[in-house]
Amino acid sequence: MSDIIHPKTTIGHVHLIVSNLERSVPFYTEIIGFRLLKQNQNEAVLTVDGVTPLAVLEEKADVVPKPPRTTGLYHVAILVPDRKSLAQSLLHLLQTGYPLQGASDHLFSEAVYLADPDGNGIEIYADRPMEKWEKTPNGEYKAVTEPLDIEDLLAQAGTEAWSGLPKQTRIGHIHLHVAHIDEAYDFYVQGLGFEPTIRMGMHALFVSAGGYHHHIGLNTWAGVGAPKPPVNAVGLRVFSIVLPDETERQKVAKRLQHIGASVRRNENSILTSDPFGNEIELIIQQ
Question: What positions does the domain VOC occupy (predicted)?
Answer without folding.
Answer: 10-127, 170-285
